[in-house]
C-alpha cells in the first residue's frame, strides 16, 4: 500500500462509521436523540450554535424521511383502492353482461 491510500482508507472508514451513527440516530426517539446530541456536543465541546445546527439537521432528515414514508403509504393506499374499485367495476360489468344475455335468450324464446 502506498502512503496515499491511508488517507483514503481513513476517509472510507470514517464515512462508514458516520453512516452507522446516522442509522442509529434514525431509530431514536426525540428524547433519546436530544440526549445523544447533548452527549456528543459535550464530548466535542461544541457551541450552542453547533448544537442547534445538529438538532436542526437531524430534524430535517427525520422530516424528509417521514414525508417519504407518508408519500409511499399514500401511493400504496391509492393502488389498493384502485384495485378494489376495478374489481367492483368488473363484477358490475359481468352482472350487466349476464342480464343482457338472459334478456337476449328470453327474446329468442318469445319468437
How would you characterize this protein structure?
- With 111 residues, the chain is mainly alpha-helical.
- It has 3 helices and no strands.
- It has helices at 5-26, 30-44, 48-110.
- Helix 2 packs antiparallel against helix 3.
- The termini are far apart.
Blueprint of the fold:
Elements: H1 5-26, H2 30-44, H3 48-110
Percent helix, as a range, is: over 70%
Distance between the termini: 97 Å
Residue share in β-strands? under 5%
Mean pLDDT: 77
Structural class: mainly alpha
Number of helices: 3
The overall strand count is 0
Q: Summarize the helix and strand pattern as letters.
A: HHH
Largest β sheet strand count, sense and barrel closure: none
Shape: rod-shaped
Radius of gyration: 30 Å
Low-pLDDT stretches are: none
Label this structure with key terms.
111 residues, 0% strand, single chain, 3 helices, mainly alpha
Compact description:
This protein has helices at residues 5-26, 30-44, 48-110.
Amino acid at each position: 500500500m502506498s502512503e496515499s491510500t491511508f488517507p483514503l482508507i481513513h476517509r472510507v472508514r470514517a464515512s462508514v462509521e458516520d453512516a452507522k451513527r446516522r442509522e442509529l440516530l434514525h431509530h431514536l426517539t426525540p428524547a433519546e436523540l436530544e440526549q445523544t446530541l447533548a452527549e456528543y456536543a459535550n464530548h466535542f465541546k461544541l457551541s450552542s450554535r453547533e448544537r442547534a445546527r445538529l438538532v436542526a439537521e437531524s430534524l430535517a432528515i427525520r422530516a424528509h424521511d417521514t414525508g417519504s414514508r407518508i408519500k409511499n403509504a399514500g401511493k400504496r393506499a391509492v393502488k389498493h383502492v384502485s384495485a378494489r374499485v376495478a374489481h367492483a367495476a368488473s363484477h358490475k360489468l359481468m352482472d350487466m353482461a349476464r342480464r343482457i344475455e338472459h334478456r337476449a335468450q328470453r327474446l329468442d324464446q318469445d319468437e
